[in-house]
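Standup notes
- DV: blocked on the single-chain target, sequence here:
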Amino acid sequence: MRYRYEPAFEDPDDNRITSLRAAGESPWWEADSKVPYGHVLYAAAGVGWSADAVVERLTALGFTDIERPEGPLPRTVDREDALLANAGGRTDHHLVWIGVGTPVTLRHIVDAAGRVGRSPADVERTLISFGYQVAGTGRRPLPETPDPRDILLIRKGSGGEGAWLERGDEVPPWHVIAAAHELRCSPHTAAKRLVELGCRLPYTPQPEDKRIIGDGRVTVGHILDIAQQLDRTPSDIVARLVELGHRVPSGVPDTPKGDDYVMLSERLDGMSPWLPTNDVVGVQPRHVLRAALATGRSPADIAARLAEMGHWMPEHVRLPETADEADVRLLATLDPDRSLLDDVLLENVLRCASLTGRTPADVATRLREFGYRLPEEVAYPEIRGSAAA
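- DV (later): unblocked, structure below
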């Protein structure tokens, strides 16, 4: 594009329709430049003319390359409507008019709709009324409700310009999950909106999906709980989760036993929140002991049943024959993030001793009996902690 920086006409309207921002201010189009159709619409809105009148006047002023679509031009143009054809933003600070020869993308429609708070369907209708061709027309109508998150929903990848989904594109399940996480909405909500925007999914979103997915923490307890609530089999829920793109833990029983819900719940009350599957360090001994006390079963029985449901323990762990509240209190004083694979340092032992009122030597001995690793060269005091719990 070539521009000039001094006005060439005495008539204020002539200067308006030939200025880059249709405001009668520098810079102005050169007569041998190609004038975009979006500029014609924007200029018509600025001076209150029809688009045909702008084209006629520009032609009379010597402009010979004026872009326009086939068919009649709009008689009246609103400034906000004209800016829907601008790919550079909502205002006239960066005007990048879309061409009439290339179908308007879904990205442009939802981006423009999000900027002005209008629905994608409204933006599409307006652009079509101006004579623009829209990619993917003939498919299902776009949503009549506005949602500024649409532009992020159709973005492929998590940053930069990247690539964008178009109407008719098939969306992989992982895209739905990633987009829902970024937008802080449920995957079911994201999936429904993508379908409304004309994208295809390898599955049909169902109302029950929202409950099946839950908060995204797919655990054995959650699967069993949802299967019971929906009167479906656990294997049916597992299959649907896989179809929705979720990684499903192993060991989901087809027929849960009576105590399974208790030992799988973090609070041991048979309800959510459910014990997460830890593929690195397994289940903590404290949970096994608490579950044993809650069910009246032995720690070994609890550990074995949890292992069947995917909650294993490291081989070096040793559990007592019976659960004891004192052991539960002792293990509760350990840092909850400290796993059975981490070394228990002197400061950890001293803290446990202080909180339980036991001697550091007693604490160290008991932790070793459970299979925790403690430095052999440390001599632990026989003096009791001063702040007994």
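- Follow-up: The chain has a mean pLDDT of 90.
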